Amino acid sequence: MAIEMETATAASLGGFFRRRAKHALPIGAPCANCATPLAGPWCHACGQLGEDFHRSTFKLIAEAFEGVLHIDGRLWKTLPDLFLRPARLTRAYLDGHRAPQIPPLRLFLVVLLLVFLASSLGGRGVVVHTTTTDDHGHVLANETRTVDALSPEDREKVKAALDQAKVKINNRPNPGAKEWFKTRLLKALDDPERFKLVLEKWSERFAFLTLPLAAGLLSMVFVFQRRFYVFDHTIFSLHSLSAVGLMFALGAVFSHLTDGRSYWILLAAPVHLFLHMRGVYGTSIFGTLLRMWLIWFGSVIGACFIVVGLFWVGLSGMA
Q1: pTM score of the predicted model
Q2: What is the CA radius of gyration of the chain?
Q3: 169 pairs with which residues across the strands?
Q4: Distance between CA atoms of residues 108 and 306, nearest Å
Q5: Of 106, 98, 21, whose CA–CA distance to 71 is shortest?
Q6: How far is CA 14 from CA 18, 102, 112, in A?
Q7: Distance CA 206, CA 313 (A)
Q8: What are phi and psi for residue 29, nearest 5 degrees?
Q9: Could you tell me which of 110, 113, 105 has the C-alpha nearest to residue 14?
């Protein structure tokens, strides 16, 4: 699997090296570092990149932005297929037709970035709408305010409950584990902003675990299909997770304008997965639905472990 992942990573970096040729020094020009005549884009003597960096600041910023997102004509060919014809997109990549589309790994990483950027637009509190009326039901005033998700009274109740809680390991009370959990949870309640920042920092890393989880589940449900390899499941997972991530990002961006109704777009995710899986793997309707159910069941279990791990890491960061 390591070789296959390296292959996918190398494929995602292919565009980076190709873009360097636009400003490469001509063959035979002296290397700026060691003066050796260049025989290619890199100096064969010292390894320095043979490129002319004397460009305007605007061009350098534009190229840096392009280096992250690699925005070119492939974007407008990849996104429509990702949403409307996902099976064709994945099958084309697996069959070797890779030049016209954005590399799956780069697409997945950019989507993760967009998901966290869109999530950050949601604010840090709960929006409460208050309407004041008179005895006849006429509206006197409307007030919209943002409050913490946990009121001070609720925090005191949680603290009192922690004193009565018992932490058992192997069916035996463990005072040390209780003290560890209680101390850090109280710190999280007293400083929720810091706890939220710790969770946000680690959630970006834990989100990447969805890729091996999805690829592993696909490998299990197709264990008897010898014509498919882990590499195939990895590319399928990259495209599928990218599509769901973009749906979530769109829902988050427009949630304020639609009062949260924009998240209904996620209802298209099961339909997308069904068409994607059946088109790539050529399974029957019953076989596809059965595998989708197994993947959903496994995803719930895996997501629980990821959330518990994230919560544990977050509490550890409150020490």
Answers
A1: 0.69
A2: 26
A3: 172
A4: 19
A5: 106
A6: 6, 10, 20
A7: 10
A8: -70, 145
A9: 105
DSSP string, 114-126: HHHHHHGGG-SSE
Cβ atoms 8, 235 nearer than 8 A: yes
Instruction: Please report which residue ranges of the chain form alpha helices under DSSP H.
Output: 2-12, 14-19, 57-69, 73-84, 86-94, 104-119, 152-164, 175-190, 192-206, 210-221, 230-253, 255-258, 268-281, 285-316
Q: Which residues pair with 139 in a beta bridge?
A: 133
Q: Could you give the CA distance from residue 199 to residue 291 in angstroms, rounded to a whole number?
A: 32
> Contact 34/43 with Cβ under 8 angstroms?
yes
Half-sphere exposure of 165 (CA within 13 A, CB side): 17
* Structure confidence at residue 213 as a pLDDT band (50, 70, 90): very high
Res 150: pLDDT: 59
Look at the chain and count its residues.
319
Average of pLDDT values for 100-111? 88
Q: How far is Cα 157 from Cα 168, in angstroms, rounded to an integer?
A: 22
Q: What does the pLDDT look like over 12-67, one tens digit per residue? A: 444 444 444 566 788 888 988 899 998 888 888 888 888 776 666 666 666 656 65
CA distance 34 to 11: 31
Place of tokens 């008897």: 224
